[in-house]
Amino acid sequence: MQNYILCVMANPKHILLVEDDISLSTVLADYLQSKEYQVQTAPNGQEAWELLNKRHFDILLTNISMPKMNGWQLLKTVRDSGQLMPVIIISAKTDREDIIRGYHLGCDDYVTKPFSMDILICKIEAILRRYAVGSQSDMMEFELDGVRFDAVRQTLGTKRLSSRENELLLMLCQNMGQTVERNRILMSLWGSDTYFNARSLSVYVNHLRNYIGKDSMVKILSVHGKGYKLVLMNEKNSKIEE
Questions:
Q1: Within a 13 Å sphere around the CA of 69, how many CA atoms are in the beta-carbon half?
Q2: What are the CA-CA distances from residue 222 to residues 151, 225, 229, 241, 242 (Å)?
Q3: I want to staple 39 with a disulfide (CB 3.0 to 4.6 A). Which of 29, 144, 175, 236 is the partner?
Q4: Which residues contact 191 (CB under 8 A, 6 or more apart)?
Q5: Please, which residues have CB within 8 angstroms of residue 81's CB and are 6 or more apart in sequence?
Q6: 208: pLDDT confidence band, cut at 50, 70 and 90?
Q7: Max avg pLDDT among 15-29, 111-125, 152-166, 217-231
Q8: Residues 85-119 pLDDT 10s
Q9: 61-78: b (≥16 Cβ within 10 Å) or e
Q10: pLDDT at 184 over 90
């Protein structure tokens, strides 16, 4: 009973807490209510999914190991339904395979136990601020040199993007032709501008460059000492700084 997935949507008020351990569910619900969230509980993923289809929840907090439908299955079902929800995995598991699995399923952050509940709330609030900014733009689909990027479905052509890849590409597309400062990206998508997060950002940029392809006229430029810029290349603008 040590693993959780947190799915967050902008302007949170209502939480669906999915946990088969009654005592733990009560403790978590009380804590979240102390932070002025309204909480409803479910004992497994199946009942949680039924509730999600009946009413709106701003946040879904779920344990992984549960009967009927576990947390991984619930997350996949939510993703497959087309709902664009940021996700934080909170787990005592620190194995590389578990962390990779979480990101492959589309999590936004992977928090290992033990952790501070206050820090968790800060992470949640940072993600909510990021998505609140993103929701202010109606531009969620882009044509990138003949390849469609759909930020709602998290797809670039036929490629399914992780949530972090999707959010990064969306930020660059919404600022097409303009330099997006590295610090702004890190604070918006990671919640902090640590060296480790900066290295992760570089990895995600390289992922997107590979997905877009070397032959595409759309390029992600590295602006030395500043950040990144998505541009449509031409003969007069053909140099990429690595």
A1: 17
A2: 22, 9, 7, 5, 6
A3: 29
A4: 109, 122, 123, 126, 127
A5: none
A6: very high
A7: 217-231
A8: 677 777 777 788 877 777 777 677 777 767 777 77
A9: bbbbebeebbbbebbebb
A10: no
